[in-house]
Amino acid sequence: MRRDLEDKEATEALGRTIGAALDPGHCVLLVGDLGAGKTTLARGVARALGVTGVVPSPTFALVIEHAGRVPLLHADLYRLESDAPIDDLGLDRDDAIVLIEWPERNLGALPADHLVVALTDAGTGRQAILSATGPRHAALLAALSR
């Protein structure tokens, strides 16, 4: 699924749309260059889940847990060495939604069933391409495509 995002507000709105469809156990990987809008999209997901506080990039904390209708674990793997163990980060919770920026730093340790949101510069704005691996997130993607 492809979405053209003309500005920051459209990126956050896509995040709200995705967030409204998420349930505990869902895992969303946010892929894109620096400044592509990953944290802006994450902020939209958080708002849809009822998070009211600040939603910063977790670059230095690695994982920030936000309280909402479902706990949101917002992770940023940018500072990790490639294939560094991430087991201690607590991202394997079935009672939470997991949102990971820079997942390509550690793809081998991530759940096989997940949704990928790839953000790129499209010249006049951004473009988001959503894809899914595994049956649970394929169903999520189908719901988002309607």
Instruction: Give the distance, in angstroms, between the N- and C-terminal Cα atoms.
Output: 10 Å
Radius of gyration: 14 Å
Look at the structure and give the mean pLDDT: 90
Strand content is 25-35%
Count of DSSP H/I helices: 3
Name the assembly state. single chain
Name the strands of the widest sheet in spatial order: 1-7-6-2-5-4-3
* Element order: H for helix, E for strand: EHEHEEEEEH
- Gross morphology is globular
Low-confidence segments, given as residue ranges, are: none
Helical fraction equals 10-25%
Largest sheet: 7 strands, mixed
User: What class, by secondary structure content?
Assistant: alpha/beta
Number of strands: 7
SSE topology:
Blueprint: E1 2-5, H1 8-21, E2 27-31, H2 38-48, E3 63-66, E4 72-76, E5 97-101, E6 114-121, E7 126-133, H3 135-145
Parallel strand pairs: 2-5, 2-6, 4-5
Antiparallel strand pairs: 1-7, 3-4, 6-7
Helix pairs in contact: 1-2
Describe it for me?
- The protein has three helices and seven strands; from the N terminus they run βαβαβββββα.
- It has 146 residues and is α/β, with parallel strands linked by helices.
- The chain has a seven-stranded mixed β-sheet.
